[in-house]
Write a structure and sequence with these properties.
Length: about 90
């Protein structure tokens, strides 16, 4: 088992088959704790704050590991904070 697979096993996350389009999820990645699933493109969107600039950024689900940061969704988030909501959808 790789280090990555070991991490995933320890940190339970929802599989892509259980995600619903447009729904926000609580979870974890380097830059966010809430992200919105985009089924059409098969990735998450979250609001990133970098050096005072706030912008939307996409991030993959662990099943689509591309070698960069991943969002590990744990549960639906029915009430995201305003600063966490995606504006383009």
């Amino acid at each position: 088992m790789t280090e990555q697979e070991s991490y995933w096993k320890k940190h339970k996350f929802l599989p892509k088959s259980e995600l619903k389009d447009g729904v926000y999820y609580r979870g974890s990645c380097r830059n966010a704790s809430v992200a919105q699933w985009d089924a059409k493109h098969s990735f998450f969107w979250y609001m990133r704050d970098k050096f005072g600039a706030v912008f939307e950024e996409s991030i993959c689900h662990p099943e689509d590991d591309n070698g960069f940061d991943l969002f590990l969704p744990e549960a639906e988030e029915p009430n995201p904070e305003e600063y966490q909501t995606i504006k383009h959808i």
